[in-house]
Amino acid sequence: MNYRKLGKTGLSISEVSFGTWAIGGDWGVSRDEDGLKGLEQAIEQGVNFFDTADVYGSGHAEELLAKATKGKEDEIHIATKFCRAGDIHDPETYSERKVSDYCEQSLRRLNRETIDLYQIHCPPIEILRDGSVFRVLDKLKADGKIRHYGVSVETIEEGLLSLEYPGVEALQIIFNLFRQQPALTLLPRAEAAGAGILVRLPLASGLLTGKFKENSTFAANDHRNFNANGEQFNVGETFAGLPFAKGVELARELEWIVEGRGSMARAADRWILDHPAVSCVIPGFKNEAQVTDNLAASGVPAFSNVEMERLSAFYKTEVAPHIRGGV
Questions:
Q1: Which of 49, 121, 276, 288 has its CB 3.0 to 4.6 Å from that of 17, i.e. a possible disulfide?
Q2: Quick one: which of 99, 192, 178, 91 has its CA closest to 143?
Q3: Domains annotated on the chain, with CATH
Q4: In this protein, which residues make up the domain named NADP-dependent oxidoreductase (predicted)?
């Protein structure tokens, strides 16, 4: 396993880490047994960082992490998120009283005394402009409840705004072959500010595995069904904002990246890791096999300059015109 610095936090984290949305819920059927085996497999292979949220399975993902990391609290770093258990547009959701309550609940489920990285979970830009929530986070940090804090954002504008607050030490962003725009401005700015970059949805909700067909279907409790067009939250969180059938078509045009890299998932993760400003990718998983496939990304060949230019041109001409939900 290769490790990278998480910005100026002082933490050294596995460049391939994992998100736990899929094992918590909202990605169709998942079994705790499979999720725990996947976590165990990741830890055995050197993964020392996991991302979760208080709303993943209504806190169930945090509880699974507590089980998997028991006795390893000093070795395994956990990032969790808050605000979406309340009304994200209500300033009260970001008050000291509410945020402290969210934090205490996460600490209880995680069975920890301190959260390594506490992130605001995709708040409206008005909340970021107001900035009051950052004073609340500063107090939680001073009280020892959290070690570091950051923001999970939907758009580049939100990311750039978050970087204006000196206490923000990490950004979690959507960045993949179907969402390349952050490489132009946000990644350089974050690197200059000493903020770590966590990349979620590296496989565009599975599109970049190349396994889907236009007639593929998803379970009723899978966000790839109930949020396909942004019905429940920002459409950019589902298939990187692409209409599903178009995303399948575009993924088919990228099959050439597999050559010499084993699978499309490994190649897609590798492309992200080829950007030095990235601290880690956090793909989701439901079982050990998916953990193994994603971990292999560290060992496959990097993309050449010619390949990078080809992929950039593909994004600009074929992908960008179809993205919904902001960039």
A1: 49
A2: 99
A3: 3-322 (3.20.20.100)
A4: 16-314
